[in-house]
Amino acid sequence: MKRILPAIAFLLFCSAIANAQPDPRYKIHDESRPAPPIVAPGTFSTQEAPGKPPSDAVVLFDGTNLDKWVSQDGSPAKWKVEHGYAEVVAHTHNIHTKDSFGDCQLHVEFMEPNPPHGESQDRGNSGVYLMNTYEIQVLDSYGSKTYADGQAGAVYGQYPPLVNASRPPGQWQTYDIVFHGPRFEPSGKLLRPARVTVFHNGVLVQDNVQLTGPTEHGERPAYKPGPDKGPLALQDHGAPVRYRNIWIRDLGN
Fold first, then answer.
1. String of b and e for 122-133 (b: at least 16 CB within 10 Å)?
2. pLDDT band at 6 (very low <50, low <70, confident <90, very high)
3. 234, 128 in Cβ contact below 8 A?
4. Count of C-beta atoms within a 10 Å radius of residue 99
5. Which domains does the chain carry?
6. What is the dihedral of CA 227, 231, 237, 240, to 10 degrees?
7. How many C-beta atoms lie closer than 10 Å to residue 168's C-beta?
8. Residue 182 C-alpha from the chain's centroid
């Protein structure tokens, strides 16, 4: 029993910090409680045009240039930009933002190549990397089979999506992601694992799942101590996947 109790205590602690609690400084319906800031909501995208981001969002790609992005080596991003989208250019490597982000709400739109090419993991493969470390898989999973924790909407190598909400190749798709990054004690000990919620085309596919650590192919490495923020990255896996309308909101907690 003595061995079990610390584990239970840790799980309860993780659960407590992952869920917001009422602020004890205020009574119920307290008129003196500060009002939340006003944010003008955005608009929904259509297949013909991207929507408008919320007023407090940081726009990372608006369809005109990749000035806020760089290649892995820090040189200018080499992906193709035209007609309001950025397209992966094979073998030019991943791109990542110049700025770093931690806890956030992220919106990404992508389109799989049409006509489709390849099978399984060779079919429209790319990825969205939170803090340049934790991958939400981008793949053409419309009528195409692969391993469950590697299809579209998966936390790659960790959690399959709850459902397959993929649209056909050649149509714009959306990821709306809520991410809470890991926290570490000054000693380097893990204090809080990362958690992520993902909506794929408006459908919940990851429900506040607890990440086991960084993304790697064929393994699940342990967490390594690091900062609370990191760049957002998009993967070059050789397929001409297109991206548009990428914006992010800092959740600040």
1. ebbbbbbbbbbb
2. very low
3. yes
4. 13
5. 36-250 (2.60.120.560)
6. 170
7. 12
8. 14
Q: Look at the pTM and tell me if it is higher than 0.85.
A: yes
Give the CA angle between residues 83, 96, 195 to the nearest 5°: 110
Write the pLDDT tens digit of every residue in 9-66: 434 344 444 457 889 999 999 999 999 999 999 999 999 999 999 999 999 999 999 9
Residue 177 confidence (pLDDT): 98
Beta strands in the chain (DSSP E): 58-61, 69-71, 80-82, 85-87, 95-97, 104-111, 126-130, 134-138, 172-180, 183-184, 190-192, 195-200, 203-210, 233-234, 242-250
Distances (CA, A) of 113 to 30, 64, 77, 136, 151: 53, 20, 20, 18, 16
CA distance 41 to 14: 31
Tell me how far the alpha carbon of residue 157 is from its chain's centroid: 15
**DSSP designation for 30:** -
Q: Report helix, strand or coil for 16.
A: helix
Whose structure tokens read 């060779």?
122
Taking only the tens place, the pLDDT of each residue in 191-206 is 999 999 999 999 999 9
